Amino acid sequence: MKPSLWDYLREAFNARPIGMFFAPNWAMLTGFGLAGYLHDPGWLVLGAGVELGYLLMLGTSSRFQRFV
After folding, report:
1. Which member of 12, 15, 35, 47 lies 3.0 to 4.6 Å from 59 by CB, making a disulfide possible if both were Cys?
2. What value does the mean pLDDT take over residues 3-23?
3. Using CA atoms in the order 55, 60, 62, 65, what is the torsion angle rounded to 10 degrees?
């Protein structure tokens, strides 16, 4: 059975490049979360857009799908 887009997005959320201790996704979430909390809440909206774009880009990539 072929995985659905949701399965690929779930895998993309915690995907780590080789040699990294944590996923770049978590670094983006932390950075935008702190900027939104400490500076301006508009960063949270911007971070949500960047996050969705990153997950969709990685989840729909044929190279990533072959890897999963």
Report:
1. 12
2. 88
3. 70
